[in-house]
């Protein structure tokens, strides 16, 4: 199993929030350097979760990035790296190709413009479109194929079978839905379910917002809590300011990132409805303690950022968020969406039941997979 030793980030200009702080300097932070080791052992089964052990990497939905939801901005502060799906022309995400696509499609241009605030975060490597050489689009396609092939009878009529047949139609449809916040289940359901499958395949966590819809509440009932903590957050900040705060918080967040990663990995490995026993309790307490120990210093840094943000176009806001780690099945979105669809057509679904016991999600090794969702809620906001 691979684990990592983090190099001294102070040598890279990332130390603390004192006079060498990025909030009092210029430029962007750089990518993280790692030294891989192969001789460290851990709990059985964790070798397959090497990405969780190596990094606190979190998948964030393009819907959340577009609207700057807490489910995007909190992971952007806490995680080592955020992985998302970048709607882009097939086979390329080169700037010139994105520019050409934006020039020819008004809705896609508006979508690209809505992500301008993240530019510095892409440049610094805080946001990436792929992990281990793969992006999530393949999993999205796979989910759509299953759904259009009758994988869930309730969802099939809502899907768009030819979504990926034409590149321009795909970009226009996805961009339009993302800008509207996901009202079209034919797009948002396979996209979200595909991101979850991508996370399971690569051992990543997935950011979630609070449950508000019928489908989200059905998914919430499937989750098994493994840890929870509160943490200072920064909202409505520019990408430049977020990059500066990330750089200054690098060392202070290492313990929390490690604790979250370890608790998440252990939670995924726990069988059935068991929580992992005393060790799981210890890990959950470790996450809470790490969050408490960093909250004061991180809160000071966030407030310093707010005071310094008059250099940027958008006024940043300091706040507090709760983050709850819950273990979910890989097909949670499909099960919960199917249940919501049945409710819409007046059929009563047994609480907690699978959408249809004889309908497999995807016939591959991921079918029984699990991931940890990080449910982010702003304290004081309903």
Could you explain how this protein is built, in words?
With 382 residues, the chain is α/β, with parallel strands linked by helices. The protein has one domain. 45% of the residues lie in helices and 14% in strands. The strands form 2 sheets. It has a 7-stranded mixed sheet. Strands 1-2 form a two-stranded antiparallel sheet. Helix 12 runs antiparallel to helix 13. The longest helix is centred in the C-terminal third of the chain and has 32 residues. The N terminus is likely disordered.
List the helices and strands and how they pair.
Layout: E1 3-6, E2 34-37, H1 50-54, E3 57-59, H2 62-67, H3 70-78, E4 81-83, H4 95-104, H5 106-114, H6 119-124, E5 127-128, H7 137-148, H8 167-180, H9 185-202, E6 205-208, H10 214-222, E7 224-235, H11 239-249, H12 254-269, H13 277-308, E8 317-329, H14 332-344, E9 370-378
Parallel strand pairs: 3-4, 3-6, 4-5, 6-9
Antiparallel strand pairs: 1-2, 7-8, 8-9
Helix pairs in contact: 4-5, 5-8, 7-9, 9-14, 10-14, 11-13, 12-13
